[in-house]
Amino acid sequence: MGQKFSALEAKHIEFIGKQKIYFVSTAADTGTVNLSPKGGDSLRVINANTIAWLNHTGSGNESAAHVLINPRMTIMFCAFEGEPLILRTYGNAKVLHTGDALWDEYINLFPKSIASRQIFLLDINKVQSSCGMSVPYFNFDSDRDDLAQWSNKRGKEGIEKYWEKANQQSIDGFDTEIMKRADL
């Protein structure tokens, strides 16, 4: 049965550390709700009430736009092997861009990547666990390296041009501040 917690417990942190995929959900006050799968070595539990995750360059930039308008964020972890469990962390997030003062404090927690676009800090105010007994089993094969290859081929300048072309607004037209706050 589901349980609620005010912070991550040691067993939650251990579970999170074993996950190969997680899901991030954000929404502005109006417009489209965004739910994005994330993977790779892109998430760190800072403490029982803080998660940092590295957002790589992609075709959309919804989370950044949404958090600027409404900082609510949910991160969901789901067991696809072993004991069934769904774990959700709820709270308010802050987005860090490459030019922000706190960027250097967090970027070195993650593997170096030319695709690094933003870091999100989730201030957790609620944790919920639920059974997950209907979630199917899946076996992890490997991480994809497609994004790394795509990014490395473009280089820093090519990535920045892509941000300018495709990452300045959400699909609902909300500003992401990427060009204003990036260290170009």
From TrEMBL:
Cited InterPro entries: Pyridox_Oxase_N, Split_barrel_FMN-bd
Gene3D superfamilies (UniProt xref): Electron Transport, Fmn-binding Protein, Chain A (2.30.110.10)
Matches recorded under PANTHER family: PYRIDOXAMINE PHOSPHATE OXIDASE FAMILY PROTEIN (AFU_ORTHOLOGUE AFUA_6G11440) (PTHR39336:SF1)
Domain of life: Bacteria
Pfam families xref list: PNPOx_N
Every Pyridoxamine 5'-phosphate oxidase N-terminal domain range: 9-130
Name of the protein this chain belongs to: Pyridoxamine 5'-phosphate oxidase family protein
